[in-house]
Design a protein that fits this description.
Blueprint lengths: L1 H4 L3 E6 L8 E5 L2 E7 L5 E5 L13 E2 L4 E2 L6 E2 L5 E3 L17 E2 L1 E4 L2 E5 L12 H4 L3 E10 L4 H6 L4 H19 L12 E9 L2 E8 L7 H4 L2 E4 L3 E6 L2 E11 L2 E11 L14 E3 L14 H11 L16 H18 L29 H11 L8 H23 L3
Parallel strand pairs: 12-19
Antiparallel strand pairs: 1-11, 2-3, 3-4, 4-9, 5-6, 6-7, 7-8, 10-11, 12-18, 13-14, 14-15, 15-16, 16-17, 17-18
Helix pairs in contact: 8-9
The structure holds FE2/S2 (inorganic) cluster (FES) and fe (ii) ion.
The site of fe (ii) ion has 5 residues, from α4.
């Protein structure tokens, strides 16, 4: 599996986290250091110094590289050893030393890295990372289980009705004594559908009272192979990025771009707010009072690497079966020396990659976004009043546009 996973780019840090102090990171089971040279280049290299294994996380950024804190060896972002200050000036020893270093690029306020074989494919310019007239917000959490648990959840539409609808209502009842009668998630699924596309699997659902003409079925939203879910609606576009730290640890990013209606001029944003998602209560139990906390409970309690031989898959699990088959097929492609699904090498295809996502989700409207904010991670974000204000401005703008059309202006 590692061979396949190494064919893709992953975010390894948020750009604003990386000042002059290097960051320790683990990705695909490898211990790494992320740093920024004084000239502004981002580097990702092995954590242990090739000299005598001290941690480069305690290094000093230089104009063109990172200097080890122990004896001062310097490596550039390509892994070339530039200096060995304690060696004789005439020594060519440094020319025979290389550090393991990986290509890194910044896009959309994240530092992305590629750990696979050369030549590196292009870093996909997904729309959320590239759009200019948007506001962004990043939430993250380190989670104690395999990235595969959330990925399988991403092709499991029924869970929304149960985990976020019925179980969510039960949690409310436990906390307040009052059972809420409805949420955006409570309507029964009439059917679900899955279609392969260029970057993974499009997931579709049709809820009670809806039709095939509704966005939830007609457009759906994608699992982007192998490690992301794209979800949202017209004004909120989110990547849920499941970064495989190692077999039993996932760094989960919720990367959101808020986008106004056509023609709406977004206020400028100087900095992307970042928040760690508080999924654990002080006593160590899961916080299941919000949608993402409910997901995290389910993913974690399945087991860090859960035993699939003990499960019983039904017809409603066919998205999961499709995803597992896709992993098997793509693993075979890599064994044959081919690029797996979604790997891009043609710059013409990478100017901006627009991924399909429902505009009007689950009926849409004010109720949808208000419920989303009330039941989701937004409740913990200090940024939420700004988002609520933005959504109200979007609504007002759309009302005025509709009035203008009606009045024939
Ligand atoms: S251990 Fe890094 S320079 Fe010696
Ligand atoms: Fe969920």
């Amino acid at each position: 599996m590692g061979e396949l996973l190494r064919r893709y780019w992953y975010p390894i840090a948020i750009s604003s986290e990386l000042g002059i102090k290097p960051l320790r990171r683990r990705l695909l089971g490898e211990d790494l250091v992320v740093y920024r040279t004084r000239s502004g280049r981002v580097g990702v290299m092995q954590e242990s110094c090739p000299h005598r294994r001290a941690s480069m996380a305690y290094g000093i950024p230089e104009e063109d590289g990172l200097r080890c804190g122990y004896h001062g060896w310097v490596f550039d972002p390509e892994g070339t050893c530039l200096e060995q200050p304690a060696e004789p000036a005439s020594s060519t020893f440094k020319d025979r030393i290389r550090a393991t270093a990986y290509p890194a690029q910044e896009l959309g306020g994240m530092i992305h890295v590629y750990l696979g074989p050369d030549p590196a494919p292009l870093l996909p310019r997904f729309d959320l990372y590239v759009w200019e007239d948007v506001w962004r917000e990043i939430w993250w959490a380190d989670l104690p289980f395999s990235w595969m648990n959330p990925m399988e959840n991403s092709v499991d539409p029924h869970h929304a009705e149960w985990l976020h609808g019925h179980y969510g209502a039960f949690v409310d009842e436990l906390e307040t004594g009052v059972k809420r009668d409805a949420t955006v998630y409570v309507k029964p699924h009439q059917k679900v559908g899955f279609d392969e596309f260029e970057f993974g699997i499009i997931k579709r659902r049709m809820l009670e009272g809806a039709s095939e003409e509704d966005d939830d079925w007609k457009i759906g939203h994608p699992l982007v192979f192998p490690h992301m879910l794209r979800r949202g609606f017209a004004w909120q576009h989110m990547f849920q990025i499941r970064v495989p730290v190692d077999d039993h640890t996932t760094r989960h990013y919720w990367y959101t771009a808020y986008k106004g209606p056509e023609g709406f001029v977004m206020p400028a944003q100087d900095e992307i707010p970042v928040m760690e998602v508080p999924w654990q209560k002080p006593d160590g139990d899961f916080d299941v009072s919000f949608v993402d906390g409910q997901d995290i409970m389910a993913w974690a309690t399945q087991g860090a690497i859960y035993d699939r031989s003990l499960e019983h898959l039904g017809q409603s699990d066919r998205g999961i079966i499709m995803l597992r088959r896709m992993f098997e097929r793509e693993l075979e492609k890599v064994e044959q020396g081919l690029d797996p699904i979604g790997v891009i090498r043609d710059p013409a295809k990478n100017e901006i990659i627009s991924l399909p996502t429902e505009k009007k989700k689950l009926g849409g409207g004010t109720k949808y976004w208000k419920d989303l904010i009330a039941t989701g991670t937004h409740r913990y974000s200090p940024f939420t009043p700004k988002i609520t204000d933005l959504f109200e401005q979007f609504e007002e703008y759309e009302r005025r546009q509709a009035d203008a059309v009606r009045d024939g202006q």
